[in-house]
Amino acid sequence: MTWLTVGTDAVLGVFALMFLLLWFQHKLRAFLAGAGVVVAYAVSEVVKLVVQEERPCRTAPSIAECPAPGDWSFPSNHSTIAGASAMAIFLLHRTYGWIAVVCAIAAAASRVVVGVHYVHDVMAGLALGALVSWGIALLLKKKMPVKREEADAPTVVMQRLR
């Protein structure tokens, strides 16, 4: 295995670490954001049942070990998880979010470079993951009450001038 194949899985560990760090600040919201990633993965698996595309490693040499037959290529599960994680992290914390976006793109690109996915597989996976995660976040935002200190615009009380 090369650093690229190990790096793809390591990026998923980076996302888990970011969620853990965000847990201390956001508790329930971080947990629910992680749950959105699980939903995105499940949606990806359903799409794979409908679109049964063979992997490029079946017809061309690849750096990584080719998954077993029946483990379809479209969309990329790694990219779906990466896209969903990046969106969830971005919605919780902008700075960590930008780091997560770069990591997600790198993880998706590495799946193409090692030869286990086509470019459209990883692009679809990133988009699918990000959209599902964003949609879950919107639904949860409507259901969860906003704490006063988390409101979008802080309230400023000024003393009356005499």
From TrEMBL:
Subcellular location: Cell membrane
Domain Phosphatidic acid phosphatase type 2/haloperoxidase: residue ranges: 28-137
A GO term for molecular function: hydrolase activity
Segments traversing the membrane: 6-24, 96-116, 122-140
Protein name: Undecaprenyl-diphosphatase
InterPro entries: PAP2/HPO, PAP2/HPO_sf
SMART domains from the UniProt entry: acidPPc
GO CC, alphabetical: plasma membrane
UniProt entry keywords in alphabetical sequence: Cell membrane, Hydrolase, Membrane, Transmembrane, Transmembrane helix
Pfam families: PAP2
Hydrolase recorded as keyword: yes
Topology versus the membrane: Multi-pass membrane protein
